[in-house]
Amino acid sequence: MSEFSLIYTHFKHATTRHPSTVLGIGDDCAISHIPPNSQLVSCVDTLVAGRHFVHETDSHAIAYKAVAVNLSDLASMGATPYAILVGLSLPKAMANDGFCKAFAHGLADACTPFGVELIGGDTTGSPVLTISVTALGFVPSNQAITRQGACVGDVVCVSGTVGLASLALHGILDDLNGDGHANRPPDSLPHDLRQAMQYPAPQVALGGRLIGFASSMIDISDGLGQDLGHILRASGVGVVIDLDAIPSHALLDALPHAQKWQHQINGGDDYQLCFTMPSAKLDLFKIQNPDMPIYPIGQIVADKGLVFLHNKKEVDLLVKGWEHF
Amino acid sequence: MSEFSLIYTHFKHATTRHPSTVLGIGDDCAISHIPPNSQLVSCVDTLVAGRHFVHETDSHAIAYKAVAVNLSDLASMGATPYAILVGLSLPKAMANDGFCKAFAHGLADACTPFGVELIGGDTTGSPVLTISVTALGFVPSNQAITRQGACVGDVVCVSGTVGLASLALHGILDDLNGDGHANRPPDSLPHDLRQAMQYPAPQVALGGRLIGFASSMIDISDGLGQDLGHILRASGVGVVIDLDAIPSHALLDALPHAQKWQHQINGGDDYQLCFTMPSAKLDLFKIQNPDMPIYPIGQIVADKGLVFLHNKKEVDLLVKGWEHF
């Protein structure tokens, strides 16, 4: 908890207080009350400057995304986020009021919409800006949605457009394996691309509603193909995806098919949910939740592997990471 | 949870399974069952190469300490540790089997004695080795021991020797503000010094036993003076410390008084517990827990501030960090 005051000074006025917090920041540890009939859900994700975001990213966006990617992991289990703990390693040049204020506001802007409280933090000096966020949430006991459970015949759905974050990254980097510096500032990107890359919206409300409906779920961080692959492997099944059914965007539609599909299937960093559901449940879910974004894009099949269709004909696509399975 | 397999491959055979774990590593999040009448206790601490350990430290010791300092934070609340989540940022040169195997064994050697399970992890590339550990534990509801609660007349105790870790660090570094490289390898240190610096033992058993006895508690990470100062500030009291009563070591006793006291009061990195207790309770505790290390070193007084005695006469010592209060 040491030396976090620089961030917390700016954050404490903005942060939510969650009724589960018995003791927040300020002692050696935080203490939390777990609601009855709930289980604790936890995850950690680390973002490193020049690897997970270009060095030119402003600190508000960095902090926002570090939280958002973790809330997305909780959402993918159907969990309701409750709190975060932040380990921040900060170069000396950034240990100033301006950086920390914007960073704290970024944390707050990611937490506040979901009632998430900052309950723990540690700031240290480092040559490289590194943010490690642990997120905690609750799920009704024994009802979490895992990667295992997709059944033959289930419909495969996503919660929204995939591929935009990847298109954005390609828009500011000439060489993805370069030094982590952008060739063009993120601000120069069209609004939708910048939002997709820097301010992904964790699908927390949808994730929670899918309890009792979805048979398996994951969030799309490494790319739709690779992440759906995790479901397939855990569930022992395969999939047929209709490329034409994947929610798209005018900027993706303007590209040649092969490029568009690369962004959609192998792009990553979208933080949409990908889940499976029996078709009868899908109909019921839509009736009960007309406000929830849900896009069927394919079907679970017995033959293992990923098959892609365009105009109802099979298309050969290389799925990043699939060779590992 | 992505890309943690390099570590987990080596760790999964060594790690404890905790009965509270419903779902461990391998999905987007872990799921945990919280025991009845318990509260969740959580903390995060980040270690950066060259800042929190010299670059010459072997990966077993790095991993061990990253866990131990967090278990020490849990112990200082009286909590029983249950699980850790690890965010590891790793330079390319270290992403090899040798480093990861030793690192995993270091994690295991810190976790196993306390039945702690690794339930979440994330490994990323980075120019600088950085380890962020989140530790989770349980405490009987509303019985955690905080920094607030020290009363005038309470005895101040520590759980063991302080100052050795600081002496060790000075033994291998000529310049504490240097580049984080040791002038002499840690292996060249006398055994007790190396142990104190690299393998501190979190006082988990004692912390738990102190529930119902200690009126306040903290673990000594920044130095006895500064950490005890947190208790004083939170409790609105002062203290008189008998320097001669602080548990020492032959290597500390061999130093001139002023140097020895510097290590003991301002040294830090000891991870002993410092706590306060009414004297009647102290007598009872000793009778009921003859096996527990507990050393009275002073008394809480109404006059705010830190007073140090040697041969019953006041000694003027500058306490690091105290000027901030």
UniProtKB/TrEMBL annotation, chains A, B:
The keyword Kinase applies. Mg(2+) 2 binds at residues 45, 73. Mg(2+) 3 binds at residues 28, 73, 219. ATP binds at residues 121-122, 147, 221. Belongs to the thiamine-monophosphate kinase family. Pathway: Cofactor biosynthesis; thiamine diphosphate biosynthesis; thiamine diphosphate from thiamine phosphate: step 1/1. Reaction mechanism of ThiL seems to utilize a direct, inline transfer of the gamma-phosphate of ATP to TMP rather than a phosphorylated enzyme intermediate. It is an enzyme of class 2 (transferase). One of its GO terms (biological process) is thiamine diphosphate biosynthetic process. Mg(2+) 1 binds at residues 45, 122. Mg(2+) 4 binds at residues 28, 73. This is Thiamine-monophosphate kinase. It holds the Pfam family AIRS_C. Substrate binds at residues 52, 269, 322. Its EC number is 2.7.4.16. InterPro entries: PurM-like_C_dom, PurM-like_C_sf, PurM-like_N, PurM-like_N_sf, ThiL-like. Catalyzes the ATP-dependent phosphorylation of thiamine-monophosphate (TMP) to form thiamine-pyrophosphate (TPP), the active form of vitamin B1. Residues 152-253 form the PurM-like C-terminal domain. Keywords: ATP-binding, Kinase, Magnesium, Metal-binding, Nucleotide-binding, Thiamine biosynthesis, Transferase. The keyword Isomerase does not apply. Signal peptide: none annotated. One of its GO terms (molecular function) is ATP binding. It catalyses: thiamine phosphate + ATP = thiamine diphosphate + ADP. Residues 26-139 form the PurM-like N-terminal domain. Mg(2+) 5 binds at residue 222.
